[in-house]
Design a protein that fits this description.
elongated; alpha/beta; 6-stranded mixed sheet
Length: about 475
């Protein structure tokens, strides 16, 4: 069998993998990147995202950064165990070091290293901006790299190539190589010429399992049949990195039963064809019934839960119905990224027939909703408290009657932006076992590292990939 010897072998070519590769190669070490895709599609999910980052500016995370993570740290956690995290990490028990929850040491490291990591990215030629997003209402601050995730991929890949990193495209990791003492010694990988062994310390940065229907069905159940990756890069994420590490004794972390859900137009083949216009209309299922408060908060705080609920509906599809007053919302067009036109009709009956919804049921739903609306001042760019009364589910903001044609509707399904379940890591991005001990020579970053529970702390996934990818690369070569 052909063998390749390196100091560090990185699996994955998104923001996490490239950050690991560049940071390791900056020290003069020999580094390889194994990437399932061809060179033209390298970059995983990062390539296709706008890469928003939950930052006030290029040096400071948002004011709610750590608070939001800690509010979504896990489910029914044992307070006696959580109390241990107030002590120095070295004094934590093995149970806590291996616990499946959002580790405050990891999150504080993420917050602390975010600014320095963005400074490091600027050194690779990346520029940042607080340019307008598809979120016309928002609860926090965000910036993004100019050119989005593609700019990150191309800049870091160029930096890696200049540093002499070897890229092995159309190469898929299959399993860990173990030394006699149990430490990780490399990766077995499938190439076009057969299996090869890549020896060196290993950084798993190969995403989650949104491209693996079997794993999604195992963890999500029947609803998985309706969920697709939000962008092309997600189809390359098959979960092998997570599986091989778990088989090697790694502790899991992150909620394996949930994913970061986005509401998309299922008719569209665009990357991330989001439909975020629902706060200004109503959401109905295939039977024409409302099933959720469409506007309980700013859209960035509610879209994930709504998309998850849609994924659990019969057929995994809902419809957002708006009337002509949607045009009173400034820049609403930014909230829809589908390349497919909405269904339109002058009457609700005509719209229902296009949607294959029983017309009388949609009419009854709209009539009941309209009767529950109340007078008030419509303020489309802030939570205005213009709510319904006496109807369930309620609508808490922007509740105007739907009475003026033409009517418009978009279908919405739930897309898997990335999976929450991954590997338990410490603040050095070392994968730990079920006793909380680092598995020698094994690291994880990006989606492969599990940190999310409950509601996703928005605009942090690309950021955690960059931060912990950089940390993993440096720690693997002893540069920390």
């Amino acid at each position: 069998m052909i063998e390749h010897a390196y100091d560090v072998v990185v699996v994955g070519c998104g923001i996490a993998g490239l950050s690991a590769a560049v940071s390791a190669a900056e020290t003069g070490r020999r580094v390889a990147v194994l990437e399932r895709s061809c060179i033209e599609e390298r970059g995983g999910n990062t390539r296709w995202t706008e890469a928003f980052m939950r930052m006030k500016n290029e040096n400071e995370v948002s004011d709610d950064f750590e608070e939001h993570f800690m509010q979504n740290a896990g489910w029914n956690l044992d307070p006696s165990l959580i109390a241990e995290t107030g002590r120095p990490y070295a004094d934590w028990s093995p149970i806590v070091k291996a616990l499946s929850f959002t580790d405050p040491e990891v999150i504080s490291t993420l917050a602390r290293e975010a600014g320095p990591t963005l400074s490091w990215l600027r050194g690779a030629g990346i520029k940042f901006s607080d340019m307008a997003t598809y979120l016309i209402t928002s609860s926090t601050t965000r910036i993004c790299p100019v050119g989005g995730g593609l700019a990150l991929v191309e800049a870091l890949a160029a930096a890696a190539e200049k540093l002499g990193v070897d890229f092995h495209y159309e190469t898929s990791a299959r399993g860990l190589v173990r030394a006699e003492d149990g430490s990780v010694a490399g990766i077995m990988a499938q190439t076009g010429d057969g299996m090869r062994r890549f020896l060196g310390k290993v950084v798993l940065a190969c995403g989650g399992f949104e491209g693996n229907s079997e794993m999604q069905a195992r963890y999500y159940g029947a609803q998985a049949r309706y969920i697709r990756p939000v962008a092309r890069g997600g189809y390359y994420n098959r979960g092998e990195g997570i599986k091989m590490a778990l088989e090697a004794g790694a502790a899991p972390c992150g909620d394996y039963t949930e994913y970061h859900a986005e509401p998309i137009d299922p008719r569209s083949g665009q990357s991330e064809p989001i439909v975020f216009v629902f706060p200004y209309g109503i959401l109905v299922d295939r039977d024409g019934q409302r099933f959720v408060d469409e506007a309980s908060g700013t859209v960035d705080t509610i879209y994930e839960n709504i998309a998850r609920l849609i994924g659990r509906l019969p057929g995994g599809t809902a419809y957002v119905v708006c009337d002509a007053r949607l045009d009173d919302v400034p820049n609403w067009q930014r909230t829809v990224r589908s390349d497919k036109k909405p269904f339109t009709a002058d009457t609700l009956e005509g719209l229902a027939l296009q949607l294959d919804i029983p017309p009388q049921k949609l009419a009854a739903t709209v009539a009941a909703f309209n009767a529950a609306t109340r007078p008030g001042t419509f303020k489309p760019l802030e939570c205005d408290g213009l709510a319904t009364e006496g109807i369930s589910p309620p609508k808490s903001n922007w509740a105007l009657p739907l009475s003026q044609g033409p009517f418009r509707a978009w279908p919405i399904s739930s897309a898997n932006c990335f999976t929450f379940g991954g590997l338990r890591c410490n603040a050095n991005a070392q994968v730990v076992d079920h006793d909380g001990q680092p598995i020698a020579n094994l690291y994880a970053a990006g989606e492969t590292m599990g940190i999310y529970y409950g509601r996703y702390t928005g605009a942090t996934s690309v950021l955690r990939g960059a931060v912990f990818g950089r940390i993993a690369g440096r720690h693997a070569v002893g540069a920390n």
